[in-house]
TrEMBL record:
SUPFAM superfamilies in UniProt: Nucleotide-diphospho-sugar transferases
Transmembrane segments: none
Annotated organism of origin: Hymenobacter nitidus
Coiled coil feature spans: none
Signal peptide start and end residues: none
Lineage, uppermost ranks: Bacteria, Pseudomonadati, Bacteroidota, Cytophagia, Cytophagales
InterPro entries: Nucleotide-diphossugar_trans, Trfase_1_rSAM/seldom-assoc
The protein, known as: TIGR04282 family arsenosugar biosynthesis glycosyltransferase
């Protein structure tokens, strides 16, 4: 199995990350939260026996150290989140991937077990999704590119997951759903996470 894990990430820079969260807790605190989430995502994925690709939102400064050693580095391209995710999946399937899973860096309760379950599910299902509590998803995987998943969506809204599942039904694709987890996008999300740590 040629399995690819795609991680969408940003450079941890003041004022450039967790901007919704920063509106209420400030840029410095939001950056610290993002660095914590990055470290968690790295810890969860570093030992997985798959090809690991980190897709950065923008070019790194010249001479910067590797974002995460042992991960291929690529730069996202596309006008919106859907186009950027579609391009990343298309790259992996063009490289011969038989299963590809994408995650972000916003989910503090994501575990290596969730990612392993996702890849295992792709042996018997065309699609796997990790529903987020806000109506989006924290993980998406597929056996081959499904362009419909990335088109005509209003990203970062509570309809994204429902629209994805509707697309899958229309295409007669078998979908495996992981447990619902909560991303950290707002101060309320942050407080909920801290309350269960």
């Amino acid at each position: 199995m040629n399995q690819h894990l795609l991680v969408f990430a940003r450079q941890p820079e003041l004022g450039r990350v967790k901007t919704r969260l920063a509106r209420t807790i400030g840029d410095g605190a939001a950056l610290a939260v993002y660095e914590e989430l990055l470290a968690h995502t790295h810890a969860v994925t570093a030992e997985l026996p798959v090809r690991r690709l980190v897709w950065l939102a923008e070019e790194k400064p010249g001479g910067a150290a590797p974002f995460w050693p042992g991960y291929e580095e690529h730069i996202q391209s596309g006008l919106d989140l859907g186009a950027r995710m579609q391009a990343a999946f298309a790259y992996s399937f063009g490289q011969g991937a038989t299963a590809a899973v994408i995650i972000g860096t916003d989910c503090p309760t994501l575990s290596a077990g969730h990612v392993r379950e996702a890849f295992a599910a792709l042996r018997t299902h065309e699609v796997v999704v990790g529903p987020a509590a806000d109506g989006g998803y924290y993980l998406l995987g597929m056996q081959r590119l499904q362009p419909a998943f990335f088109q005509n969506k209003t990203w970062s809204t509570d309809s994204v997951l429902a629209e994805l599942l509707a697309d899958a039904r229309q295409l007669n694709l078998r979908v495996h759903q992981l447990p619902v987890l909560r991303d950290v996008d707002t101060e309320e999300d942050l407080q909920a996470w801290r309350a269960v740590e």
